Predict the 3D structure of the following.
Amino acid sequence: MRQELKEISVATDGQRLFEITDSVRAFTKSSGITTGLLTAYCRHTSASLVIQENADTDVQRDLIAFFRRLVPDGDPLFVHTMEGADDMPAHVKTALTQTSLSIPIVDGRLALGTWQGIFLFEHRQQPHIRKIVLHVFGA
Amino acid sequence: MRQELKEISVATDGQRLFEITDSVRAFTKSSGITTGLLTAYCRHTSASLVIQENADTDVQRDLIAFFRRLVPDGDPLFVHTMEGADDMPAHVKTALTQTSLSIPIVDGRLALGTWQGIFLFEHRQQPHIRKIVLHVFGA
Amino acid sequence: MRQELKEISVATDGQRLFEITDSVRAFTKSSGITTGLLTAYCRHTSASLVIQENADTDVQRDLIAFFRRLVPDGDPLFVHTMEGADDMPAHVKTALTQTSLSIPIVDGRLALGTWQGIFLFEHRQQPHIRKIVLHVFGA
């Protein structure tokens, strides 16, 4: 049993999904591990991780639209507004999605389903550099 | 430290919860691992995993009712409708719940609380065969 | 590769967040593991785990306010009411947040971002003792 770590950066430019499947796959492959577990961890509280369909981009559009309606920027419910109208909604959207994801490795490949992609979900409007730590272990 | 993998299938027939606790327990026991970590991973974007109370079935009924009200089938917000009125809501419900779950193994048993069960949450109306990958490691 | 387990208890007194970052850090440090993975697992279905900002406490206030509005205690949608008006909402809030969280360990430290704290999110009004199992492995 061995393990490896890597931190990847994603430059974001608004409230949408950024696919990181290729980066995670490349790291998994380079580790040479054929059976094991990959964990992705997002080091932020206003961006998060989701596994979603990566075929029709309308799915991403609709997912974003739903979260915007559920937790609108500038919602008067919130008192934590000093960092912007989209900051507290970003924290809520992060709580509603994932900060960590674990995916088994089978025969040297991530056990992603046919339509599954791994995405960083950016919840802030301004550009950010987001850090995701990847950890893999196995044999 | 050793590890084992298994894929299980769940035949679903509508928008509800299907308990998989027994299958996950049996796999954990058969591995012979007494201290470790079990990860369950759902290979779909329109079905997900949740840990919920498995005592009163009204809890499952209410959970389903809540998610149906929050993300109604046929919601006019969505443009991704070609796969059916329940498809995009299924993607949203998946994002709001879990695709992967990790549970420690203590003294040869999953560290589930007294009332906790592991469930596949089917979000589509039509029957599906859902695949869940189980990974266990430890000693 | 080694592993360690520990169960911690959190005494709660109402619907709010209880930070457990220090306990998780102390366990990680005492394990002596410098590269690895920490998993926290909540053994309940009416309390859950979230990673959130631990700088401005208004973030916690707003997060609680949002979940109370989204899943109000006493919501007439629910039929599972015998354990109290806040019980079924607690199950829903648990499904919407996390039961397990995994965090890589880098250079002997949890890979938490600058503003990230680990919290138990109590969804019941009455006092409870909540159990969280911590599992760490690595080298």
